[in-house]
Amino acid sequence: MSVRRTAPVRVVISGKGGVGKTTLTALLARELARRGQRVLAVDADAQMNLARTLGLSAAEAAAITPLSHERGYIEETVGASPGGDGSMLRLNPDVSDAVARFGVDGPDGVRLLVMGGLRQAGGGCLCPENSLLTAAVAAVGREDADVILMDTQAGVEHFGRALARGFDQAVVVTDATANAVTVAVQTARLAADLGIPRIAMVVNRMRTPSDAERVSRLVAEEGGFPFTAVRAVPWDEAVVAADPSVEPLLAAGSPVVQATSALADEWWAAAMEVAR
Fold it and tell me: What is the rounded CA–CA span in Å between residue 171 and residue 198?
């Protein structure tokens, strides 16, 4: 039986570019939806790949207009035009209708909200767009979803502008490379600064136990971090073959799906325990 709480469980997923954040987000979204949870997947990455990864067709994905490109809505709610200087922004814009107006239905009933980002180089200040995105994420309530999974752009910029403030859990994704681990530790520290209570690390594409040992050593070299949990997702060549969609992985019962399913169960149970 599905457990309801007064506010959605909010999970932000971050890490260095190319470590598999979007694939993990899509698998978690589909797995939780199949367990009866109302899932809102938020694509806050300027690359906007989450729609295809969730399983929407190329035509369906191309038809989505990102929220940050809705010029009229931005002016209406934020009080400033995209590319403006941000001097007349409303501090608390009413964007409570954003999911209903701009959300898209995906496979397994997952609701997708594509935030978008910078349209072109030299496009001016992103203050109105950033204000809208931050408010829209914060405004998602119990009536919209049981769980929010936010796939973020590479690096730590979204934490710098506090987009993830108010989230219950942060999942930092890494692989066994030094650069990825450095970004993961930096991101975890910023998440802690924002007051996110549960910060987990996922070591993706783990081939051998030595990969886990290497990540542990690299985290220590970065000064360490008290992660709530450290979990691994194994390497599976099928992920490359399935690209861009997770649909073939779900159909075949990939080891990656099995690992993600276990993560979904663990994190949801932890969130419900906190809610009680």
Answer: 8
Segments making up each domain of the chain, as ranges: 9-275
Q: How far apart are CA 169 and CA 119, in angstroms?
A: 29
Q: Could you give the CA distance from residue 247 to residue 112 in angstroms, rounded to a whole number? A: 16
pLDDT digits (tens, 9 = 90+) for 62-112: 999 998 888 888 888 887 666 555 556 676 788 889 899 999 999 999 999
**How many beta carbons lie within 10 A of that of residue 115, not counting itself?**
30
Look up the CATH superfamily of 9-275: P-loop containing nucleotide triphosphate hydrolases (3.40.50.300)
Q: pLDDT digit string (tens) for 104-116? A: 999 999 999 998 8
Please, what sign has the CA dihedral across residues 67, 73, 79, 84? positive
Cα 44 to Cα 25, 102, 134, 211: the distances in Å are 12, 14, 10, 29
- pLDDT digits 0-9 by tens, 236-276: 999 999 999 999 999 998 999 999 999 888 877 766 665 55
197 in Cβ contact with 226 (< 8 Å): no
Q: What is the DSSP letter of 64?
A: P
Spatial CA neighbour of 204 closest among 61, 22, 74, 81: 22
Nearest of 24, 94, 105, 31 to residue 61 by alpha carbon: 105
Residues in the chain: 276
CA within 13 Å, CB half, 201: 25
What is the token pair recorded at 170?
């942060």
Tokens of 133: 């995105």
